[in-house]
């Protein structure tokens, strides 16, 4: 599209157009096309989604090679997060009825039994459904545990706006029950692989152990999923507090701490990148990480590396490693200098359609850079650490570590270079956008021509979010500011450990929950407020699996929490010793 524009301009005279004005033109022309492309893929009245139930988003109208005429929970949540941000940010006030259709559609979808389970046994993480809202029962990489978290984040963004705009009743009666189902799923099952969470029906045994990544291929922990889960629980706990649903707060906060702790383990210090997947036998270099960084951007969190904010030293170092991994493997990138923008894909080892660049991943690089610029300008300085030095040296070989105020030439040089770098990624997206402005999923690594699913809804959403970021719109604050990793939870990952399953038979009333606390860091040192929540998947047996140090004596008790009132088990304390290795099951009855 950019080439077309340039040739048109050449006919009209010898005006020299700066690269940024070319990108300005692209953003202006592509924005309405992307918005229309996105809306065309939402039922019931989207022009390319006939047959889709009201409020359901089709991934793409493509029915063969690949067949994407399904609704994915992830794609839908990211698409509606974009719509909800536009609505709550005041950019488009007409979108509310559509958002309400999404609410109704997802509430129904949550209740559909599917190969991942029922609403209470894992079915919330089923990755995709038929477009009439029925279960897809064919083989698939399931479950995918980012779905419930992303959906909760979309709804919480809407809920926060409603609370601020005098419609708390709708939040409490309609949205909160939907959000709570997803968040309880995240709290209980965010990364579990152990049998204790299975229900007894053998048909469900196959999927529930698994946790597939966003690319639906790798069955292991995944950075994007973990980061999305962490964000959802933090926001959920804040929303719960604001609407008086306080019984969930302790449980969400405890698991958010554990997840934040686990999030740190993806960082690869020697490689200077985030290992996106812990399985799969790949390098781990993956767009998963840039997508996570833009999805969890919180403009008030500065360049904090704890949550891998877009401008954090770790996220910038990671971005360079990620981008560089595509320089030599795509024909269309050859001849581009080593510090200039290139087309990027999902991960360098990708073989899907022979492995090509994707529009939404190339756009994500630009978006992470625009998000960074928002923060540097807002805080009036930029910091270079040994971790981010290689990233900055791309633009200024003489760069050194330190903090550079906005009055310094280093700040000016680096921010304008990053702006140009970001615009160059958008120019690449523009260059390979066909003249009608439509976005497929991929573009050919050698020919540059559109490839795979046409009119991919997520591609359109990615264009809208990167354009907003370029204009300086930052997405909603979600509570990333000042977060620290809880030391107790982290200690449970050090040294020889065993997996201990706690089962306790306890009859409870509706709204009452069972927690565990005891004499070890990993048992939260007898704290009732940060005690570990148990799940009731096999009610009246409440269960949780905790990683404890091996060969260790410990004492513990279960507590009941109802309306924030804590009731301890009667004395004496329970006592156990963990074995040297392996796993260990404790069966108790509430006293
Ligand atoms: C379809 C998935 O959606 C895609 O991500 C994956 O690469 C291919 N199947 C091949 O496994
Ligand atoms: C394949 C992608 O890998 C996956 O992330 C996406 O959800 C589906 N296609 C549908 O767009």
TrEMBL record:
Any idea which positions bind substrate? 140
Q: Name one GO biological process term.
A: polysaccharide catabolic process
Note the SUPFAM superfamilies from the entry: Six-hairpin glycosidases, Starch-binding domain-like
Polar residues: bias regions: 570-581
The protein's superkingdom reads Eukaryota
Gene Ontology CC terms, in alphabetical order: fungal-type vacuole
Annotated region (Disordered) at 570-591
Record-given protein name? Glucoamylase
Which organism is this protein's natural source? Hypholoma sublateritium (strain FD-334 SS-4)
């Amino acid at each position: 599209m950019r080439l077309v524009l340039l040739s048109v301009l050449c006919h009209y005279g010898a005006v020299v157009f700066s690269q940024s004005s070319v990108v300005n033109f692209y953003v202006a022309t592509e924005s309405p096309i992307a918005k229309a492309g996105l809306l065309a893929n939402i039922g019931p009245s989207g022009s390319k989604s006939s047959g889709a139930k009201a409020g359901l988003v089709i991934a793409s109208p493509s029915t063969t090679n690949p067949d994407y005429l399904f609704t994915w929970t992830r794609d839908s949540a990211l698409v509606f997060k974009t719509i909800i941000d536009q609505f709550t940010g005041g950019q488009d006030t007409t979108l509310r009825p559509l958002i309400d259709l999404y609410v109704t559609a997802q509430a129904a979808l949550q209740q559909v039994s599917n190969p991942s389970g029922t609403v209470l046994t894992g079915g919330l993480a089923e990755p995709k459904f038929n477009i009439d809202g029925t279960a897809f029962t064919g083989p698939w990489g399931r479950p995918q545990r980012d779905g419930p978290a992303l959906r909760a984040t979309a709804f919480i963004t809407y809920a926060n706006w409603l609370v601020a705009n005098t419609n708390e009743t709708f939040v409490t009666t309609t949205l909160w029950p939907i959000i709570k189902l997803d968040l309880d799923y995240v709290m209980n099952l965010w990364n579990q692989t152990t049998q204790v969470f299975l229900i007894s029906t053998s048909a469900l045994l196959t999927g529930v152990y698994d946790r597939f990544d966003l690319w639906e291929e790798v069955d292991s922990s995944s950075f994007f999923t973990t980061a999305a889960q962490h964000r959802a629980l933090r926001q959920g706990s804040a929303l719960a507090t604001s609407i008086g649903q306080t019984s969930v707060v302790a449980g969400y906060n405890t698991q958010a701490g554990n997840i934040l702790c686990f999030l740190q383990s993806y960082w690869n210090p020697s490689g200077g990148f985030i290992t996106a997947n812990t399985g799969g036998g790949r390098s781990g270099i993956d767009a998963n990480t840039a997508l996570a960084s833009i999805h969890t951007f919180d403009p008030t969190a500065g360049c904090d590396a704890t949550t891998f904010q877009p401008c954090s030293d770790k996220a910038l170092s990671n971005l360079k490693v990620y981008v560089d991994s595509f320089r030599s493997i795509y024909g269309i990138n050859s001849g581009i200098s080593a510090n200039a923008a290139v087309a990027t894909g999902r991960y360098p080892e990708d073989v899907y359609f022979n492995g090509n660049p994707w529009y939404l991943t190339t756009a994500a690089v630009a978006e992470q850079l625009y998000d960074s610029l928002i923060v540097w300008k807002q805080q009036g300085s930029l910091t270079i650490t040994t971790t981010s030095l290689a990233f900055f040296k791309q633009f200024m070989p003489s760069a050194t570590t330190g903090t550079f105020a906005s009055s310094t030439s280093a700040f000016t040089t680096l921010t304008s270079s990053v702006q140009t770098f970001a615009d160059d990624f958008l120019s690449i997206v523009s260059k390979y956008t066909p003249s009608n402005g439509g976005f497929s999923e991929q573009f050919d690594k050698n020919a540059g021509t559109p490839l795979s699913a046409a009119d991919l809804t997520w591609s359109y959403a990615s264009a809208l979010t990167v354009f907003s970021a370029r204009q300086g719109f930052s997405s909603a604050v979600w509570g990333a500011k000042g977060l620290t990793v809880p030391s107790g939870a982290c200690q449970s990952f050090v040294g020889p450990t065993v997996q201990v399953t706690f089962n306790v038979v306890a009859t409870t009333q509706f709204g009452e929950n069972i927690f565990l606390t005891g004499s070890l860091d990993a048992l939260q040192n007898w704290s009732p407020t940060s005690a570990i929540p148990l799940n009731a998947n096999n009610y009246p047996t409440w269960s949780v699996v905790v990683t404890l140090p091996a060969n260790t004596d410990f004492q513990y008790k279960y507590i009941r929490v109802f309306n924030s009132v804590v009731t301890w088990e009667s004395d004496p304390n329970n006592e156990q010793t963990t074995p040297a290795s392996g796993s260990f099951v404790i069966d108790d009855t509430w006293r």
